[in-house]
Design brief:
With about 350 residues, this protein is mainly alpha-helical. About 75% of the residues lie in helices and about 0% in strands. Strand 1 (about 125) and strand 2 form a beta hairpin.
Length: about 350
């Protein structure tokens, strides 16, 4: 076998490995979704779930499936997909293995915008004293717009450092930490000057929790995140080119400034809409792309859809653990993802591994 044939054989074998990985990820996601629908404070049988799916019923099982479990599962999958793909694209276009909406301060900026909407504009109110139904968003559109506008500020600061100051990957992460601290301080200031009801709604909203989203919220999330994922997949070749450096990408016909700007702005929109509906969920956008790169490499055509699947799977499994680990107490899923993501973040800082 010639060297060329050997290379082609290895490429085809690796492509098969990627396809197998995507297929297995889909199956695991479906199984995790089914398990999440069945398990909870009140366990359902598989027969009850199937009946609820195909038979119109107003009983308790049907109500649990359609009004509690399925919205929660869909929210976890959609938000996990969005955060993971935003992290993967941020890492590629900034050539920074530590980049994600959370580490770059974009999530904190979006949280500040959401807190401004809840505390100053009054778009959030408390509905009761229970932890599971404490906050109602009266106008999710204003909340999302405020979160998006705030996240854009952090995005443009990062882009300005990368474009005009030639900032290194380490510098951009440090700038993200500073921006996150700044916006967190702004959120604290809003809480300080707000009344008890608004403070309660803001504090509760900062806990990452996919259980608070309803069917209306799911449709809004789908309208934003699905087109964003499609856009990223269509531009996967451009992101591959950017990894080789701006000059190389330009020589290949890539409009570097446009691709980077659009990619970061869309990532900010994803972070904003996710924070608006489920609060801050850290480290999904950081952890998932590294897991996928380790298993199937960094080719964007496979990395982006694989990150979507693994991101949805990771957040769904984390939420399921948060629901059943200390049942009947339900932990915010942001607690679980932080426990998973923080050690990896420290590991990456210590090892400073090269991925490109």
């Amino acid at each position: 076998m010639s060297a060329k044939e050997k290379v082609l054989t290895e490429y085809h074998e690796f492509s098969k490995k990627r396809v197998i990985f995507l297929t297995v990820s889909i199956l695991l996601l479906l199984l995790a979704a089914l398990y999440a629908v069945i398990k909870g404070t009140y366990d359902l049988s598989l027969a009850e779930v199937i009946t609820a799916f195909f038979v119109k019923d107003t009983g308790m099982s049907s109500n649990i499936v359609w009004n509690i479990r399925i919205p929660r599962v869909l929210t976890a999958v959609i938000v996990g997909t969005g955060l993971a793909v935003a992290g993967a694209v941020n890492q590629s276009i900034l050539r920074n293995p530590l980049a994600s909406p959370f580490t770059l301060g974009i999530s904190s900026a979006a949280a500040f915008g959401a807190a401004f909407s809840l505390g100053i504009l009054g778009t959030g109110t408390t509905s009761g004293s229970t932890a599971n139904a404490a906050v109602i968003i009266n106008n999710p559109y204003i909340t999302t717009v405020c979160a998006f506008a705030s996240s854009l500020i952090a995005t443009f600061v990062i882009l300005a450092l990368a474009r005009y100051k030639g900032a290194t990957p380490e510098t951009m992460v440090l700038a993200g930490v500073a921006l996150g601290s700044l916006f967190s301080a702004g959120t604290s200031a809003i809480q300080f000057f707000s009344d008890d009801v608004k403070v309660a709604s803001i504090v509760f909203w900062t806990f990452g929790d996919v259980g608070r989203a309803g069917w209306r919220d799911i449709w809004i999330l789908l309208v934003i995140i699905i087109p964003a994922v499609i856009y990223y997949i269509r531009n996967s070749w451009n992101y591959d080119a950017l990894k080789a450096g701006d000059e190389t990408a330009k020589s290949l016909g890539v409009n570097v400034e446009k691709v980077r700007l659009y990619g970061m702005v869309i990532a900010s929109l994803i972070a904003a809409v996710a924070v608006s509906f489920v609060g801050i969920i850290g480290f999904v956008g950081l952890v998932v792309p590294h897991i996928v790169r380790k298993l199937i490499g960094g080719k964007e055509m496979y990395l982006i859809p694989a990150s979507c699947l693994v991101g949805g799977l990771l957040l769904l499994v984390s939420d399921t653990v948060a629901r059943i680990a200390f049942s009947p107490v339900v932990l915010p899923v942001g607690v679980i993802t932080s426990f998973l993501g923080a050690p990896l973040f420290l590991y990456l800082i210590i090892k400073r591994r090269e991925y490109w």
